Amino acid sequence: MVHTVSGLRFPCLPSVRKSPSSSYPPGLFHGDRRSSSTSPVSLLLRKQYHLPRKVFAGKSSYDSDSSYLMAAASGRVLVPGSQGDDPSSSADLSKTSPTDSEDPEVISDSTDLTMEVEEEIEQEKQDSLEDDDASEVADKSTPLMDVSSVEKEELRKTTIPPPGPGQRIYEIDPMLLGFREHLDYRFGQYRRIREAIDKYEGGLEAFSRGYEKLGFSRSAEGITYREWAPGAKSAALIGDFNNWNPNADTMSRNEFGVWEIFLPNNADGSPAIPHGSRVKIRMDTPSGIKDSIPAWIKFSVQPPGEIPYNGIYYDPPEEEKYVFRHPRPKKPKSLRIYESHVGMSSPEPKINTYANFRDDVLPRIKRLGYNAVQIMAIQEHSYYASFGYHVTNFFAPSSRFGTPDDLKSMIDRAHELGLVVLMDIVHSHASNNVLDGLNMFDGTDGHYFHSGSRGYHWMWDSRLFNYGSWEVLRYLLSNARWWLEEYRFDGFRFDGVTSMMYTHHGLQVAFTGNYNEYFGYATDVDAMVYLMLVNDMIHGLFPEAITVGEDVSGMPTVCIPVRDGGVGFDYRLHMAVADKWIEILKKRDEDWRMGDIINSLTNRRWLEKCVVYAESHDQALVGDKTIAFWLMDKDMYDFMALDRPSTPVIDRGIALHKMIRLITMGLGGEGYLNFMGNEFGHPEWIDFPRGSQHLPDGRVIPGNNFSYDKCRRRFDLGDADYLRYSGMQEFDQAMQHVEEAYGFMTSEHQYISRKDEGDRIVVFERGNLVFVFNFHWNNSYTDYRVGCLKPGKYKVALDSDALLFGGHGRVSHTAEFFTFEGWYDERPRSFLVYAPCRTAVVYALVEDEIEDEVEVGIKEKVEDEVEIGVKEKVEDKVELGGEAEEDPISELP
Fold first, then answer.
1. Which of 212, 304, 421, 806 is the most buried (most CB within 10 A)?
2. Domain count of the fold of the chain
3. Can you list the alpha helix ranges (DSSP code H) found in 681-780?
4. pTM score > 0.85 for this model?
5. CATH assignment at residue 829
6. Residue 707: which pLDDT band, with cuts at 50, 70 and 90?
7. Widest distance between CA atoms in the chain
8. Which residues carry out catalysis?
9. 149 in Cβ contact with 80 (< 8 Å)
């Protein structure tokens, strides 16, 4: 069933309980809509549009045959302050209106695991389908438990712990003692705000539920709409429901600048504003008459052929709301993030949907071995090419990709697969769009933002929040909670934290690590306090939630708990590493310095966890180049097919692409991130559809004729076994599964025993693994001694040179490596290895072996006796680990 509203389709769960299917012709609403009897599901309004974008022609959440969407068919889904700093003068919102291998030492390879994961996913679907069928036969009236409703009830009973002493930061980092005055003042401000919230708002838990009072709220008697707009002289609620009549529903203002109106239900009990109606608030402001989308709107849509967006009153009947079925996954110890963008996640040149991402991309992420998906561009943004960072409607999921219920279905599916879902949240700035966003909302420059130049980011062309405003705190804290509670996200990557923490926003500033750069007049204490509050709120209500701060400055205490005096993030995004790789890639191989690489990867603060990446979406954007493109450039267009000879550029590029990713993951942090497609060296760049831009000085910046050709992800390239991309994808998948098996990123034991500038060799230990990297472009070393801690037998756990991964197969995977007693490279023991040029090999202590884990780089299907990495059946048994053939690549199909 699909309801049509002005420029939007609302896919709905087929309900066992039928709703009246009344249809109202255009022009029904004349005069006061309270005199008409409107069906709560009637969404046929006066002005009809076609679909706002072709994306809505795709399948919705409820068109899939997947088990997690079949609940409906089974009959189980039935029910599912003021602008100053004085908190006492804030808006008073308290008043409301009426497998095992035959050989235990040989672990199945990554492709076998892929098959197992796919079979597991398919089995889950089949089991759930059988459950649904059984349920339908047993009792169609049994309501399905909505896990989100249970969680919401529990959250209301939660008390966020009071502030701690905030002094442990000085024990962790004694260098902070020299800046104690600043840090104690910061913590004192945080305590003051917490105490004020307790006194005037009933605590941080209640304060962070601003969306229950501001914006639209529904009760049994009707709909209440409130908006904080102290600069407005008058206000009225307008929309399809009252024929956009500004005199029909005028609002009243209280002493705190909050405008309010109550709309009682219609005579037949239906809501005064039908689900799906377009709504706006009309205000008489110091800047003139202005129609704005409500600041707390939950959904907004751009009608086709029009520029402005429209707010949508989104309140579907209970039987049409998506019901969450799956619990949140536990917080993983090792965080492996797959950074994604829903819109560009299709191989086709189009805007993809939440539903397609759910059905096509999420199983891929699971198969690749990642345990978390980080999703960009969720908050509504009127400018698609902003990558989602110029937010216009903070509480609304982007309508480009589908409806709010589509997004919920997508997240629920991720949870079913055991994936943690992180949202790329933007609280560092807002779009300067006056028509659709918060800018000049009530006609004043300093409503949600700082006035004047302090409220404007000259590089981003956006507005900057006033974190010292009580109502801004309410808005942003409630926004963070809304996404966690309503949509069941599992945490956030906070964008632009560096910009927030400093009044100079990190622009034209080179951070050297001197502590004077972090604690002084350039620090925005109000913003620091907000970050402490939001982390406190998130972890107080959602202990398993994950927060990642995007900070390039290296600000101390960012990842120390708030109770200890820190800012409270779980992880810092280790942004300097990607920049270092670009710097290195511009040099000749002979100029690479092992010590420089190691220092960049390990330069992070004690007890502050980091998420590291070799490249993210930033490096994939037009104007920049991905690592694969830096390495192989134009050769990628002509020499990636396996049926034609490779080139030295391609050989070098594929080898270094794998080594860079592995050493980054091995040494760079406690978490790892990869932007979708980069795992297989996605060619070219990302370029959003755009037209030519005419600048005031007469210059013209050419566009791309609004093409989606480079705003997509060619997953088909990584899946094509006749292209070299597949080997790079197989390696990345293997790398993830080795980390899953051994947990080396979070191992307490880490020791770098060798960084040889002459041999170009790096050796280090993480847990019971020994990593050996040979970055030399020509020299291979036999019987090369590497130090280790533990005695015993080691085996190959991962080999970047395996044929499966597009390598030359020079390392034996059946060889056993026994340790020798005696100190070497400051290690008590050592063993001998073969280290081919441009190869990384991971050796695992056999005693640490886990029966079902995957040894990556060994592709051995026992029943077919297939040699590792060779994608063809061989008639005679092939001995694994033999000497490399003259031209192994040419033998691949």
1. 806
2. 2
3. 715-719, 725-742
4. no
5. 2.60.40.1180
6. confident
7. 93
8. 495, 550
9. yes
